[in-house]
Amino acid sequence: MRPERRWFFYLTILGCMSVLMSGLAGETERTAALEGDIQATRNTVSYRLRGESKRWEVLLNLSSGKRTVKEIPFIPVQENDTFARKEIHSDRYRAVIRYDLIPKTSMNNILYVELYHRKPAPLITRHRFAVVDPAASEVHFVGENLYLMDCVGAGPGCTGKIIDPESGRQLQRLQTGPEEGLNVYNTNFVRLHSGHYVFFDSTGTKGILYNGAGVEVLLFNMEADVEQGVRAASPEPEKLIIVYGSAGEKPAGRALLYDIRQKKTIKIYNL
């Protein structure tokens, strides 16, 4: 789901939870969801968390496990750019996601995407992707292919699909089994040094390694609430640092270091 719509949905749910927790426990439980992407080097990872009325920036030392948490200015979520067109790029292509057409096309559940060569050139093709909610859905480049996140606007659910950019043909549906999909709501994806990509389930318990021809399921030793988010980065070749949103007394989040080659968790960083 697109960030501006995700935050309105998340904050509404969070407000209801806060009222409920206040009534049950006499105080509000501090819950924070991941905001934006994370930044990782070989030894550190930084990320941001957003609560109902506060924001924090966290710096985690991967060697010592020490965290530095500081509060940063709270910026209210704005939804003004929901229907603004968005442009994305790969090495070969550029694509324009026509969110601006949504008000004109009413509720036809179509997301329009225009594809061009990277340098100024005539239009190659115009796609009409059938999705659940065009305003909530996203399109990214994965290499030279399109990655379509087909999202539900009224709830935390997104289906991931790899699409051929010129034909619009589906190359790969992101799922962990014949009848089990990957919910990519409030997640990102990571390009590894090998050129392969990893996509994540919103629960944080599993992911998919995509090599351009097929997928392999990865399992992680941690779980997140769907609303709190999962973000990952590659601090060094064939390793993942996966960050989970926060629920509890400290707005610090949790993290997990994972080795792709060995298919195992190296270290868990708890609250």
Structural descriptors:
271 residues; mainly beta; four-stranded antiparallel beta sheet; 2 helices; 10% helix; 47% strand
**Number of DSSP strand runs:** 23
End-to-end Cα distance: 27 Å
How many separate domains make up the residues? 1
General shape: globular
Q: Report the sheet-strand fraction.
A: over 45%
Question: Could you give a quick summary of the protein structure above?
Answer:
This protein has two helices and 23 strands. By secondary structure, the chain is mostly beta strands. It has a five-stranded antiparallel sheet. It has a four-stranded antiparallel sheet with strand order 5-6-7-8, with no helix packed on it.
Question: Could you describe the 3D structure shown?
Answer:
It is a single chain. With 271 residues, the protein is mostly beta strands. Strand 10 and strand 11 form a beta hairpin. It has helices at residues 3-25, 102-105, and strands at 30-40, 44-50, 55-61, 67-72, 86-89, 93-97, 110-117, 123-130, 138-142, 145-152, 157-163, 170-173, 175-177, 180-181, 189-191, 197-200, 206-210, 215-219, 230-233, 239-244, 246-248, 254-259, 264-269. The protein contains two helices and 23 strands. It has one domain (3-269). The chain has a five-stranded antiparallel β-sheet.
